[in-house]
Every structure is written in structure tokens, then in C-alpha cells.
Here is the input.
Amino acid sequence: MGAPTPKAALDTLRDRIAEGIAGNVKAYNVPAVCVRVGIQDGVEPGDADEAFRSRRVYVKNRLVQLDRGALLTIAAALLKEFDIPNLAEIVSELTVHATHRITEITRRDALKVLSCLDTLFNDVDLFDGLNIVSSEHLSHDGIDNNLNFLPSLVRDIVQHYVRNSDYSTEELLIRCGAVTCSQTKFFALLEKWLHPVVRRGDEQVELATHLNAVLRPDGFQVAVVGEQSTHPIPSGRQACRSYEVGTAGENSRNPLAGAARKLSLGVRNQGRNRVDAGLGSHCAPVAIGP
Here is the structure.
């Protein structure tokens, strides 16, 4: 049985919409964009001046009275125009991941599975992988700057995980937020570990099998959504043949039989409909189905 559904605050959704517009639109274009995505019906006299004073406040003031359905419609329209990862994340939490949750116990058990790996992301940069869940952006810039005496997560990682073995893989992931991050980010992290760019062949199959054993009590499983050959997948599920591994019990010996494949996580529920939710370039698609 999965975890209870969290009550994601609608005001957080309002903030993400306002921040998304403020971060992507020039002040003089804000009123017109608000009309285009459904925040307001038309541009009124004085709107331009108000937007120049604060783009974020301008948008937030017009979202206060809107309900969940209206806010999600606006967010969807906005995501069609702009790449706003934080907004895509909360939309996913309120829709795709709203009714079926993974427990903290299962998250921690999944992290323990990683203790058997020699490296987390193989040839892929460690920080690129950890940034999927880390609230603090991790970068190699300034690591060896002796003038920087302030504590930071990246310096701790380099000192206690990269240069020394003070942190276990599990502790590293917990410090980066893998236990407390959104379910959207946690699934994206699992998908990163299993992506053929990171690992292939027997290593990929073995990890997927172990993760399935851990995820199954909460009703989740690793599912194949496409194959990656010599040509890269441009984005999302474009240019790949989509299919799924069967539900629990099918293909149990080899859940990833065949060539290197791109993986996704699916929730096994009692419904008959299958829903695919793409979250842009920052999140792999999540397949939901029986």
C-alpha cells in the first residue's frame, strides 16, 4: 500500500506560475502573456505600469481567486510556451502523482539497493545525476577555491564522498534530498540510474530486478517505454518505439530482455486506462497503467 496523498498547497502552484512568467517574460509583455494563457480576459489601462513594478506580484494578484482547475489549465498553457521545471514538477504532483504515493520506507529501501553499485552514474557526471533531486545546485565551479570557507553541500560531497569514503551511497543520496524530494523527482532519479546512457546489459537488468522487488509492495514497477539504438532520442518519447513490460509476474526472469532500453516507472492500479505524462526535457515520461 502506498503513502497517503500529500496536500500540495495551491498557493505553491500560484507562486510557480507567477515565478515562471516573471522569469521568462519581459515586463512589457506580461499582460499580453497573461491574456494568452487565460489569467485575464484583456489588457486594461495601467496594466503595463503595474507589471513594470513587479512582474511576479502582477501575476500572483490575478491568480488569488482562481481554483485548482483553473490554475492547472493556466499552468498547462504556460508549459506549452516555456520550459519551467519547477512548475512542471508541481503540476505532476497534483495530477500524475496525486492519488498513488510511494512510502518513505520504500524510498529508503530503494536507496539501499544502490549500495551494490560501483558508481552511481558510471560515465555520467555525478553532479548531473544528483542535481535531479538536490535543492542546492551542484557544480564543480569553485570547489578548489581556498577563499571560499562557507560550508556547502557540494564541498561536503567532494570531501566526504569523492575524495574520501566517509559517506555511503545511501547517506549521500539522503543528504541530497532523495528521501524528501517530490515523487516526480524521485522517479526521475530512478529512471536516470536505469537509462542506457548510464548502464546497459546485465548491470541494467540486475538493478531493475532489485528495484522492482523493492517497489512492488507500493504498487510500482520499472517498465520499458522504448529502445535506444545508435541514434539518440531527441526528447521525451519522440523517435522511439514504445512498449511496456508486463505487470508483476510476467517477464520476471528478465524484465529488460533485449537491447538497451529507456525505462520509466509505472503504477499498477485497478483501472483499465493507461496514461502517459510527459514533463518536458527535465523529467522522463511516467507510464501509469494496470
Summary: The CA atoms of residues 224 and 263 lie 5 Å apart. The beta strands are 220-227, 261-267, 275-277, 286-288.
